[in-house]
């Protein structure tokens, strides 16, 4: 019977301690409810304040999230001190510091992507709507979140990329500038006058609507002696978006082909001459 009495005594002591804590628990719940209301109000005020600025929407969301987290941390600390009077803010922060080390090791990749996302959000060189390429992934930046970024490829597929990959590896921003250079190789026959061919090609490109002719000149350089042609390196500038690049290349190639044909300048194709070391034997058919 003695063990039963001891157990009963312990249960009663726990019940008394719990009843004694009920007022503190009630106050702590009120504090948490107030924290929820203040966090909602803080998010609304921050969103309204940054909504009047030219700050990126992704950065506005980041500051709103950080404001909410900060309010909740203070609210939970106050509630914990109320329920457990022995706790102090210093001891809570010390506990959080020790716990954060363990959590940091356990969730290393998550925090790495989180910090990389914050840095990417502050970048001016890469914005939502830009066309980028990184580690073989190329497409339009559809969304930048805290942990990941969404890349919409030109074929319509959505690729979700960890922010750490965009932070650690080279990122090619295709649309950082309004215009981007295009280059094609155009060959003419060896008996063609190169100056005449250069002039015909240049005038053909100048007549293309997709070619930017302001600050960037059209360049046509004789590049090399090919197997069956003299090859020109033809360079011009057009819109930086992938569809603009493809549209301009189509228009320029079509215009050069038409202009060279109209001028009677040959665009040769490779010739093949077959030689045999010994005469080939001729066989007679049965009809002969």
Automatic annotation (TrEMBL):
<dbReference type="Pfam" id="PF00924">
    <property type="entry name" value="MS_channel_2nd"/>
</dbReference>
<dbReference type="InterPro" id="IPR011014">
    <property type="entry name" value="MscS_channel_TM-2"/>
</dbReference>
<keyword id="KW-0812">Transmembrane</keyword>
<dbReference type="InterPro" id="IPR011066">
    <property type="entry name" value="MscS_channel_C_sf"/>
</dbReference>
<comment type="function">
    <text>Mechanosensitive channel that participates in the regulation of osmotic pressure changes within the cell, opening in response to stretch forces in the membrane lipid bilayer, without the need for other proteins. Contributes to normal resistance to hypoosmotic shock. Forms an ion channel of 1.0 nanosiemens conductance with a slight preference for anions.</text>
</comment>
<dbReference type="Pfam" id="PF21082">
    <property type="entry name" value="MS_channel_3rd"/>
</dbReference>
<dbReference type="InterPro" id="IPR045275">
    <property type="entry name" value="MscS_archaea/bacteria_type"/>
</dbReference>
<feature type="transmembrane region" description="Helical">
    <location>
        <begin position="20"/>
        <end position="41"/>
    </location>
</feature>
<dbReference type="InterPro" id="IPR010920">
    <property type="entry name" value="LSM_dom_sf"/>
</dbReference>
<keyword id="KW-0407">Ion channel</keyword>
<feature type="transmembrane region" description="Helical">
    <location>
        <begin position="90"/>
        <end position="122"/>
    </location>
</feature>
<keyword id="KW-1003">Cell membrane</keyword>
<keyword id="KW-0406">Ion transport</keyword>
<dbReference type="InterPro" id="IPR023408">
    <property type="entry name" value="MscS_beta-dom_sf"/>
</dbReference>
<feature type="domain" description="Mechanosensitive ion channel MscS">
    <location>
        <begin position="109"/>
        <end position="171"/>
    </location>
</feature>
<dbReference type="InterPro" id="IPR049278">
    <property type="entry name" value="MS_channel_C"/>
</dbReference>
<dbReference type="InterPro" id="IPR008910">
    <property type="entry name" value="MSC_TM_helix"/>
</dbReference>
<keyword id="KW-0997">Cell inner membrane</keyword>
<keyword id="KW-1133">Transmembrane helix</keyword>
<comment type="similarity">
    <text>Belongs to the MscS (TC 1.A.23) family.</text>
</comment>
<dbReference type="Pfam" id="PF05552">
    <property type="entry name" value="MS_channel_1st_1"/>
</dbReference>
<keyword id="KW-0813">Transport</keyword>
<dbReference type="InterPro" id="IPR006685">
    <property type="entry name" value="MscS_channel_2nd"/>
</dbReference>
<protein>
    <recommendedName>
        <fullName>Small-conductance mechanosensitive channel</fullName>
    </recommendedName>
</protein>
<feature type="domain" description="Mechanosensitive ion channel MscS C-terminal">
    <location>
        <begin position="184"/>
        <end position="267"/>
    </location>
</feature>
<comment type="subunit">
    <text>Homoheptamer.</text>
</comment>
<keyword id="KW-0472">Membrane</keyword>
<feature type="transmembrane region" description="Helical">
    <location>
        <begin position="62"/>
        <end position="84"/>
    </location>
</feature>
């Amino acid at each position: 019977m003695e063990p039963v009495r001891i157990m009963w005594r312990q249960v009663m002591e726990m019940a008394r301690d719990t009843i004694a804590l009920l007022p503190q628990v009630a106050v702590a719940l009120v504090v948490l409810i107030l924290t929820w209301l203040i966090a909602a109000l803080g998010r609304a005020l921050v969103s309204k304040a940054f909504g009047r600025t030219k700050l990126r929407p992704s950065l506005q969301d980041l500051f709103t999230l950080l404001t909410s987290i900060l309010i909740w941390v203070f609210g939970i600390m106050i509630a914990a001190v109320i329920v457990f009077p022995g706790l102090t803010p210093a001891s809570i922060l010390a506990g959080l510091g020790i716990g954060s080390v363990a959590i940091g090791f356990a969730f290393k990749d998550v925090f790495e992507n989180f910090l990389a996302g914050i840095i990417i959000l502050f970048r001016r060189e890469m914005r939502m709507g830009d066309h980028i390429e990184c580690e073989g992934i190329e497409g339009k930046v559809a969304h930048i979140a805290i942990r990941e970024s969404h890349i919409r490829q030109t074929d319509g597929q959505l690729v979700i990329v960890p922010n750490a990959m965009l932070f650690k590896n080279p990122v090619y921003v295709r649309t950082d500038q309004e215009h981007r250079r295009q280059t094609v190789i155009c060959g003419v026959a060896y008996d063609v006058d190169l100056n005449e061919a250069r002039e015909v090609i240049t005038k053909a490109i100048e007549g293309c609507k997709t070619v930017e002719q302001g600050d960037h000149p059209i360049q046509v350089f004789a590049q090399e002696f090919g197997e069956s042609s003299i090859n020109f390196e033809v360079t011009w500038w057009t819109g930086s978006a992938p569809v603009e690049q493809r549209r301009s290349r189509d228009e320029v190639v079509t215009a050069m082909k038409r202009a060279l044909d109209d001028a009677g300048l040959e665009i040769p194709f490779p010739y093949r001459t077959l030689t045999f070391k010994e005469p080939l034997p001729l066989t007679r058919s049965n009809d002969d």
